Amino acid sequence: MSIARRPARCSRLLSPCALALTLAVASGCGRSAAVQTASSLPLQRVVIYRNGVGYFERQGHVEDGEVRFRVTQREVGDFLATLAVMERGGSSVRAAAFPLPEERADGAPPPADARRTVTLALDGRAHDLLVGYTVETPIWRPSYRLVFNGATAQVQAWGIVQNLSGEDWRGVRLSLVAGSPVSFRSELATPVIPVRPVVTDEGAVIDAVPTGETTLAVNDESIEHAQPAPAAPQSEACNGADDNCNGVVDALQQRAQGQTVNRRMHFAREAMQPTSGTLRDHAFEVNTATTRSQAPRNVASLAALAVQGGSTRYDLPNAVTIPDRSATMVMLVARDIPGSQMYLFAPDPGVADSVSHPFHVARFENRTGALLERGPLAIFEEGAFLGQGMLDPLPDGATTTVPFALERALAVDHSAASAVEGVRLVRMQREALTVERFTVWRTTYRLRNGMDREARVLVRHALDGAQMHEPPAGTELANGGALVPAAVPARGHLDLLVTTRSPFTVTIDLSDEQAGLAIEQYLREGHPADDVAAALRTALDMRRQIEERARERADLEQRRQDLQQNAEETRANLTAIQRNPQAADLRAQLTARLARVATQLDQMTRRVVELDAQMSERRVRLAEAVRAIDVDTSRAAAAPAAPR
Fold first, then answer.
1. pTM of the full predicted structure?
2. Domain residues of the chain, as ranges?
């Protein structure tokens, strides 16, 4: 593999001297263009999407009464489904005709590379036509560079485009869309005769009520009218060419709708000066001698960012040439962004040692104004290559953390314990309560730092459906987990406590210990109505009295059991000495004891009966106090606040 040589001034590390790098695609069987037409309609614009389709625009002056396209059988369906033809001044197409495929003796479909002729009949001669259509096209792929220069960081986004269309793209306006609009294959060129039912006259019977469509009235003032966007700045390299420098508005859509499209276009503040040369080999030279990246010098040489339909589109300001069977890598964005290096403890099954050591990561915020698609990210610092990571789709304004190495000078281990805690009233209807409780997990991460400098570490804690409880300052939620920050001192250690809770509900009655706690919490924080609060306080008082008497009764029952056992033992002893004349004094002592025990048992029995009666009374009072209670805190929380 040969390496193309560049001038010395362009070989510095990540120095953005070349706006586009064109690489030859590996040779193979030749492929003709999916859509062929006369040179009077040359290719002017190509828009590449991330879902395997490309939009192609041809424009030119036609002197004939018809225009013919030769389309492969594979692509004719997409071509017919998306074909749009416009002429300056109005429509000029009478019909689009194409022959049906000839039936083969073996019944097989025509070959995919067979050609179908689509003829556009025009309403006369001399037309300035613009023809647009979509066909299958390799997706464009992003590639990123992140350069740390001290306290600053710069992100560069490149787009790699492959031309396998079968024709050269010469001087075309190129746009790359970071999005995937809905697109599907259409077999419009294949004859279809559906099976039709046999209809007989059986009278007018309605089997189902038809459903109508309703459109609500909208005030004109509520409609946001699009305003023309200001012209993009021009550079010396553009020479005032509007088509190349101002970011091309979708001409086909603009003419079809008859209105100005609000592009919401803005240019990256940093840009780079393009060069006229192209690189046709599979690699390019990088010189790592320079310790700092160079900022782009020309604003207009970077892609303009346009947001349409929720997708970000990069419009290259200068026309590009991409020969067939080749690829080009074009600079899209170069922007200084907030970013830093730190460490991330997030065990990955693919990296065995990550269960004990954190990753070295690059953390930065996307301030490019565009969605950054998934793609490889190369990371540099002060002229050194640090590693590579994979950038997942990153919306504008979002922050990402990309691992690129494993740091063995930091070690992490952890332990966890769980318990059921807390109680909150969800609903109370009479004596039945639904309460919310929490399964609480407490995980302690012990981080040890063997380096001579403080280490900033993010610990990714999997939530598994739980919620963070009293999280440490700076904790972020991301992708079903929490990123918990920690600063580990040099040659030191740190214990990081992470608490999560998972709520669950359970139904209990007023006799449950948790019922009183739930009602007390509701009286403190729920702000119930006065009558409800009075009833609940009465219920709490009755419940307290019942609990006190229940405890006293339980104590009496335990003492009664002890006395009854004592009485049984005393009776057994009396039986044993009943016929012994020498044990008269002992019989008298045991008989007296038995009498005292019987008296105590009678007193305790009477007290138990009294307590049972009192508890029965208070249970009735408790039931009466809560008879009208119907509280639903979830419904109260969902109700809108009353106007002041």
1. 0.62
2. 410-510, 527-638
